[in-house]
Specification:
The complex is a heterodimer of chains A (about 280) and B (about 280). Chain A has 13 helices and no strands. By secondary structure, chain A is mainly alpha-helical. The longest helix of chain A has about 30 residues. The two termini of chain A are about 30 Å apart. Chain B is α/β, with parallel strands linked by helices. Chain B folds into 2 domains: about 190 residues, P-loop containing nucleotide triphosphate hydrolases (Rossmann fold), CATH 3.40.50; about 80 residues, no CATH class. Chain B is built from 7 helices and 10 strands. The chains are: A mainly alpha (about 280), B alpha/beta (about 280). Chains A and B meet through helix 9 and helix 10 of A and strand 5 and helix 2 of B.
């Protein structure tokens, strides 16, 4: 049954199968934690459930120093404590950088589209972008810090250098993949060059471009984390790097899962948005 | 009849990297009069679609020139409708949006859709589009479907409606019915004949099916090569007068067989000079 390519698992079977590895991971983790804690009850490498609970509470619900000192500290609501917590502050800082990076992908898509549609623009940029794409973004990090300082710009530029060439080339390939019949058809229906480019080609490739960006979300986060770990006063990666020094695994693990959850939610949002905006597109 | 599209000594060759250039068409001469229904047939790879793309303006000849109403037009425009075999509709638009795309684009351009009057005008255009949709035998319920929800025949009906709403002077159809089942194909052929009779649009229909070419065309043009390695040119032309057809528009059976044999002989032999066969009155 397992290796039958014509197997058609039902809804319940599909749902159950999809959670087995999560359950197995959790069981394995706590089994390993139990073994380590049997040897050393203060073990910090694989925190126990109660240690994780304290870590999560510290990370997600611990109010900042001012709040703790105030006379109303005991009455502060759970929501307010969450939005004042270090994790939330770091999440907002990282999200801002992430948002800027996503916005900077728009010009990348436009450039890729124009390169694919207008041969002269394609000739002008293609070879350079192909070369640029081969530059390892992290290797230019020192140059970025020298050129742009250690502020926000250098971190955003790192993401731009790391991800935009891929998005430009992907958009270029998607554009050149639009059947020529569609372009000719556009002209015969009275569209001019920009009409064909934006109303026919861009609209057709947009769901695939969004998918391409979705697949690059992890790369975006990777470069963002690299920048934050090396030079940043805040952000999720900064926090993880800081906690590493104190062996704060009980906070690092929830942090890592929090980042994964956020990224999963961004991916899910983009997928749902893609499906809603492009009901004709069946791959979303 | 005046010559709407003269093709004068056309030559086309394709260059591929590391290989000798391949001549597809050479010394091709053809005159197409306004209001004619020309069926172009010939064996696979003989340059039928290339000839169509030259008239469309999607390709330029290496030698010779193609004139449309006395002018060389370097690229496709709204006066030449196009119905290809595949990718004939925009997959991201509903049937209705596909049909109204042309008039909307022509009237409002790239940004004109942001104008307040676009909404009211769009209603009128959609109303017109529904008329074309019904004319092509589609239901109102089909208007909001996407192309991938339509059958092959329905797609081609929409593609024809999409082209016709622009009222083109020339309609170019490239193997437009070759992927359809025989029943749908026959129905589509009847419809195109009616459209031609009603509108007087000049139609150029590329097909590899000789029966289809004979049924549809007021003239059948056969392209072929002098030798297997050679380039193509017009090797045979045939006028099909209405008197050779029955009341349904089909050529009479005896005539059909005779003409089919003539065309098959021309495409198989390929060595003869271009000739024009005028059918005898039946």
């Amino acid at each position: 049954m397992l290796f039958r390519i014509d197997a058609r698992p039902g809804r319940v079977a599909t749902w159950t199968l999809s959670w087995i590895l999560f359950a197995a991971g959790i069981v394995l983790y706590f089994h390993a934690s139990g073994i380590r804690h049997a040897d050393n009850p203060d073990d910090k490498v694989v925190p126990s459930l109660s240690q994780l609970g304290h870590g999560i509470s510290d990370a997600f619900l611990k109010a900042d120093a001012d709040e703790q000192d105030s006379p109303d500290a005991a009455n502060v609501s759970l929501a307010r404590r969450f939005f004042n917590s270090m994790l939330w502050t770091d999440t907002v800082a990282s999200a801002k950088r992430f948002g800027w990076s996503m916005l900077l992908l728009i010009p990348a898509v436009i450039l890729g589209l124009h390169m694919g549609m207008f041969p002269l623009i394609g000739s002008f940029f293609l070879r350079f972008i192909l070369f640029f794409d081969k530059i390892i973004a992290l290797s230019v990090l020192p140059i970025l810090f020298i050129a742009f300082g250690i502020d926000e710009l250098s971190k955003i530029m790192l993401i731009v250098i790391g991800v935009t060439p891929t998005i430009i080339l992907d958009t270029f390939n998607l554009t050149t993949g639009v059947p020529p019949e569609q372009i000719v058809k556009g002209f015969t229906l009275g569209a001019n060059d920009f009409g064909v480019t934006y109303w026919i080609v861009l609209k057709q490739i947009l769901p695939r471009v969004l998918n391409s960006i979705r697949l690059n979300l992890k790369a975006i986060m990777l470069f963002l984390f690299a920048g934050e770990m090396i030079a940043s006063p805040d952000g999720l990666a900064f926090r993880i790097a800081l906690l590493r020094r104190h062996m704060g695994m009980n906070v690092i693990i929830p942090c890592v899962l929090w980042v994964a959850l956020l990224l999963y939610l961004v991916d899910l949002t983009m997928r749902v948005m893609n499906r809603r905006l492009h009901p004709w597109f069946r791959e979303a | 009849m005046s010559s709407l599209i003269p093709l004068d000594n056309i030559g086309v060759e394709y260059k591929s990297h590391g290989q000798a250039p391949r001549k597809v068409l050479e010394n091709l001469d053809l005159e197409i009069a306004a209001g004619e229904f020309i069926s172009v047939c010939g064996q696979t790879g003989c340059g039928k679609s290339t000839m169509l793309r030259l008239i469309l303006g999607a390709e330029r000849p290496g030698t010779g020139r193609v004139l449309i109403e006395g002018r060389e037009l370097p690229r496709p425009d709204r006066h030449r409708g196009y119905v290809p075999q595949k990718y004939s509709l925009f997959p991201n638009q509903t049937v209705l949006d596909n049909i109204t795309f042309g008039p909307e684009m022509e009237e409002f351009g790239l940004w004109g859709r942001l104008l307040p009057r676009f909404r009211s005008r769009r209603k009128e255009l959609r109303h017109d589009a529904m008329g074309y949709l019904r004319q092509m035998g589609l239901q109102d319920a089909d208007a909001h479907k996407y192309p991938d929800q339509l059958s092959g025949g329905m797609k081609q009906r929409v593609a024809i409606a999409q082209a016709l709403i622009m009222k083109p002077r020339i309609l170019l159809m490239d193997e437009a019915f070759s992927a359809l089942d025989p029943g749908t194909r026959a129905e589509m052929q009847r419809q195109v004949r009616h459209i031609w009779a009603d509108t007087g649009t000049t139609i150029l229909f590329v097909t590899h099916n000789i029966s289809e070419a004979l049924y549809l065309g007021s003239r059948v043009v056969v392209l072929g090569r002098d030798s297997p390695e050679g380039s193509s040119r017009v090797i045979f032309e045939l006028n099909v007068p209405d008197s050779a057809r029955n009341t349904s528009g089909y050529p009479l059976r005896d005539e059909m067989e005779r003409l089919t044999r003539l065309i098959e002989g021309a495409t198989d032999g390929g060595q003869r000079e271009p000739e024009t066969v005028e059918l005898r009155e039946v």
